[in-house]
Amino acid sequence: MMIVDLVDEVDFKEKLIALGAPVTHEQSLLEVQEAVLAWLQAYPEQTPFIKELCESMQKDNTTVLPEVYRVMSAFG
To answer: Among 4, 51, 58, 72, which residue carries the largest CB count within 10 Å?
Structure first.
């Protein structure tokens, strides 16, 4: 039996919040995308941390839901 990690909207928001991004659980993914992009523009020093987070969520045996992947792609 193969075990696969799944990154869904809740997981994604929790990870962004843990990094200090101005995101809430109540926001839609589009609102999350807009908030994080604005945050990165104001605080570009956070960009490597967001990129590392996105890369780590796309590694082996991790399944990222398509709607979450689209938001991650917007971060570069």
So the answer is: 72
CA atoms of 35 and 41, how far apart (whole Å): 10
Beta-ladder partners of 63 = 6
Residue type for position 70: R
55, 42 in Cβ contact below 8 A?
no
Domain edges within the chain? 5-74
Percent over 90 (pLDDT), the chain: 71
Distance CA 57, CA 76 (A): 14
* The one-letter amino acid at 63: T
